């Protein structure tokens, strides 16, 4: 090649470099896909608070819906059938990661062993077989636990505090799951020291549960504890209605039930768990594996009291209890 042609070639390629660089820099980044399966109703105010916290935390980490991330939601409204159907639908979309809560983890776990899943508000992920251990989850699932079993003892103590005359308590539980067994064992272990005789009632069959509660309520000084399970979510409205009908002071494990008309709850701060879930979704979107992200236990708990409901069933909430409450619904 002649020297003049060589120089022209060099100059020509050099002038093309800026255009090539600009083209590379202007190439849009791929939009990541997140799916969310929630066991709640989309119109539920508490569910929307949780979702808003997740979206806010996600945005603070650099993810903006409609720009670099898209979120596909499914709201099951407590329906087990819908949870199974929606789990299959979302897995078929092949998202980068799925966010889920509480009861919805089970159908998702059955639907996929490869798509990364981040859960919140799950009581015993090891006992349920969702993860190998808290420190090393293994597989495609990790997240944030709702509580450990020791909290069940506090529910019984709260029942005695809010209704000192209580000597009997119906404990609603799902005996077929590990969490149902663990919570019941804890409540049993402290019942004599609290001075309350406890009676287990299965949540599995709605008709049997209703009959058992009606029989329980025929005797005086009764109360109610609703333990954490998918069945408690599914039967939420019925449980709250029955407790009101029989004027039973009741303690729940999540403020979700207090917003729906229950009198008192003590449990993990649900909104905080959704904020934390955004950090794990972010890390998975950036390349980390669920198997390497340890399951974290709840560290922030909240006491919520619905004064209107308490007064409706004749409860005089102690001022000491009100002073400890994180939220009081007037």
Characterise this structure.
With 330 residues, the chain is α/β, with parallel strands linked by helices. It has 2 domains: 32-146 and 269-299, 3-Layer(aba) Sandwich (Rossmann fold); 151-268 and 302-329, 3-Layer(aba) Sandwich (Rossmann fold). Helices cover 45% and strands 19% of the residues. The chain contains 13 helices and 12 strands. It has helices at residues 3-26, 45-60, 80-92, 105-111, 151-162, 178-194, 206-216, 230-234, 236-245, 255-259, 270-285, 307-312, 319-324, and strands at 32-38, 69-75, 97-101, 117-122, 141-145, 168-173, 197-202, 222-226, 250-252, 264-268, 301-306, 327-329. Strands 7-6-8-9-10-11-12 form a 7-stranded mixed beta sheet, with helices on both faces. Strands 2-1-3-4-5 form a 5-stranded parallel beta sheet, sandwiched between helices. Strand 1 (32-38), helix 2 and strand 2 (69-75) form a beta-alpha-beta unit.
């Amino acid at each position: 090649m002649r020297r003049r042609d060589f120089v022209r070639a060099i100059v020509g390629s050099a002038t093309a470099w800026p255009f090539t660089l600009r083209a590379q820099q202007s190439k849009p980044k791929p939009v990541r896909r997140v799916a969310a399966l929630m066991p709640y109703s989309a119109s539920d105010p508490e569910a929307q608070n949780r979702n808003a916290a997740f979206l806010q935390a996600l945005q603070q980490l650099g993810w903006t819906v409609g720009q670099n991330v898209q979120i596909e939601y499914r709201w099951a409204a407590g329906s087990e059938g819908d949870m199974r159907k929606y789990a299959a639908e979302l897995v078929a979309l092949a998202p980068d990661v799925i966010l889920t809560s509480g009861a919805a983890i089970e159908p998702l776990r059955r639907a996929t062993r490869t798509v990364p899943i981040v859960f919140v508000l799950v009581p015993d992920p090891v006992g349920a077989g969702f993860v190998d251990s808290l420190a090393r989850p293994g597989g495609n699932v990790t997240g944030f636990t709702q509580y450990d079993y020791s909290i069940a003892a506090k529910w019984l103590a709260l029942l005695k505090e809010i209704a000192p005359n209580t000597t009997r308590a119906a404990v609603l539980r799902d005996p077929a799951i590990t969490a149902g067994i663990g919570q019941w064992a804890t409540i049993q272990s402290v019942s004599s020291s609290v001075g309350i005789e406890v009676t287990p009632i299965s949540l599995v069959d709605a008709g049997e549960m209703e009959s058992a509660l009606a029989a329980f309520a025929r005797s005086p000084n009764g109360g109610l504890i609703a333990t954490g399970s998918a069945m408690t979510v599914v039967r939420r409205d019925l449980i709250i209605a029955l407790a009101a009908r029989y004027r039973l002071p009741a303690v729940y494990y999540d403020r979700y039930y207090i917003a729906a008309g229950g009198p008192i709850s003590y449990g993990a701060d649900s909104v905080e768990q959704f904020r934390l879930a955004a950090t794990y979704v972010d890390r998975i979107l950036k390349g980390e594996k669920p198997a390497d992200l340890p399951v974290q236990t709840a560290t922030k708990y909240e006491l919520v009291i619905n004064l209107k409901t308490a007064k409706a069933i004749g409860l005089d909430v102690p001022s000491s209890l009100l002073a400890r409450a994180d939220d009081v619904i007037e």
